[in-house]
Amino acid sequence: MKALVTGANGFTGSHLCQYLLQRGDQVIAYVRQTSDLSRLKELDVEFAYGEITDQASLESAMQGVNTVFHTAAYVELGLVDAALMERVNVGGTKAVLSAAQAAGVSRMVYCSTIGVYGDTQGKLIDETFARQQAGFSSAYDRTKYLAQQAVDAAAQSGFHVVSVMPSGIFGPGDPHFGKVVQLFLKGGLKVWAGADRVTGIVHVDDLVDAMLLAVERSQPGEHYIISTGELTTQEMFQVFSNETGIAVPTEIPEPIVRVAGGILDPIGRLLGWQPPLSRERVHYLYDRCVRVSADKARKQLDWNPRSIQETLRDLVQQ
């Protein structure tokens, strides 16, 4: 297989490139000229350069490609450049879809998010769930929802594209929660917020496995939730504590966190700084709860991920 991976230098994209090469596939890494390529430095990939919204560059890079994996995205909560996020997540996805169809690509896998389902208010849902939330919790949720609509429209028009909806992606090199884990391992994480927040978890390599299975076994237009299971933040830190002997961080009272988020948010906007707490992050900690079931992927794709405990153990043993 000759595959093109958008966002190849990112967390998920780089793991995907590695797995494709191990299978003997030819891999084209579509990246920007300014991209940090450190995650790809030891991988025998062919580079194609361009912006994710540049349909001409995308189409040129896709010549002779069988499968496109679209993992590129602007992922961030808190204070973000909403216009840039829309350009990357929505405009970029539309450009990738158009280029893939114009280049005669036979299959595409789109890396979406469980966020497209909106706040389920703690209800456990599957792929049949119809989004009920009015509005969006973040610019990220909104742009990924709009991008998903574009993907679904392409599938309805006859293009073979499949969507995977991962929950929280964990694993070596995680640029988000991985930093928190490293601070914890150094004994520097003494307090934390949102201990009761429920988080869906999937190992990045299990997500990659699901994407490869989706290429081989899925029908066009299918959606697959990809999540091993879920834990509260308190339970996650307890697993880390059991593995390392380091004490679980102390929970900061919710009222203090809410006040801090309300104070830091405008300061961050004024200074162009991403504070550790903002109104949006507080909303995700206490007010929004998305719970999902990945039974469809397990049954239809024969997806068999490692356990949650193994996933978290990998973070403290890397």
From TrEMBL:
Domain NAD-dependent epimerase/dehydratase positions: 3-226
> What Gene3D superfamilies has UniProt attached to this entry?
NAD(P)-binding Rossmann-like Domain (3.40.50.720)
**Which InterPro entries is this protein grouped with?**
Epimerase_deHydtase, NAD(P)-bd_dom_sf, NAD(P)-dependent_oxidoreduct
One annotated Gene Ontology cellular component of this protein: cytoplasm
Any one GO MF term held by the record is: aldehyde dehydrogenase (NAD+) activity
Q: Which UniProt keywords apply?
A: Isomerase
Q: Which domain of life is it from?
A: Bacteria
Among the Pfam families in the record, one is Epimerase
Supply the name of the protein.
Answer: 3 beta-hydroxysteroid dehydrogenase/Delta 5-->4-isomerase
Write down the species.
Acaryochloris thomasi RCC1774
Q: What is the lineage of its organism?
A: Bacteria, Bacillati, Cyanobacteriota, Cyanophyceae, Acaryochloridales
